[in-house]
Amino acid sequence: TAKAVRPNTKWSMWGWPHWGSYLDRSEERKKNALAPTELFAVLDWFSPWVYDWHKNEDSPKHRDWDRAWVYDTIELTKEVSGDRPIFPYICHRFCPPGDKSKKPIDPPGFALIPDEELKEHVAWALQAGTDGVVWWGGDNFHIRLIQKNPPPQPGDFRYFKYLRLKDVYRNERPEGMSYVDYLDSIHRDILGMLSEVASAEGRNDSEPDGPQRNSLAPPRTRPARLHQ
Fold first, then answer.
1. How far apart are CA 71 and CA 59, in angstroms?
2. Which residue in 102, 141, 161, 192 has a CA-CA distance of 20 to 30 Å to 222?
């Protein structure tokens, strides 16, 4: 196994445990999510993903859905993590729902999450009782895909992803700016925002008079950390 080859490495498995559905958190779903007990037993830390699915400004219910998704996923993870760390994966772009290979991808899939919504989403992940977050994003892969020559054609599993990404990056990137400079710019800004949130949550943990956490979220025993 991987742990036998690299015994001094701390291993995890991305995305586990996972509900398998954004809105359905039934007992049957929970049972299936917690079924891989042999896998959970060998993990050194846990890395569920809690990406943002909906733009909050489009509907009041979207914020409630996304918040519940984050908290419920972390609570699910706590049932198997014991005293092992939890570092959920977050992303600065909206997660596109459904099978991305068989139908067009509608907005806001892959679009940048607005600054305040991203900060709130990351704060939820920290407030839910995790040890930090892992920031993931596929910008470099996305750029290579939309610059592919010849581009993906209908029938290629990347075709609908290519069409959506081409629109997203064309509308985002300032005219005359290279993709390298553009990605450097937004990544610096996002890293600053994430560090701001992590620092604020760390202060809230250590200050007795700081803002009160949601009753669902037990306090962390370690300061929030950010991994990129």
1. 20
2. 192
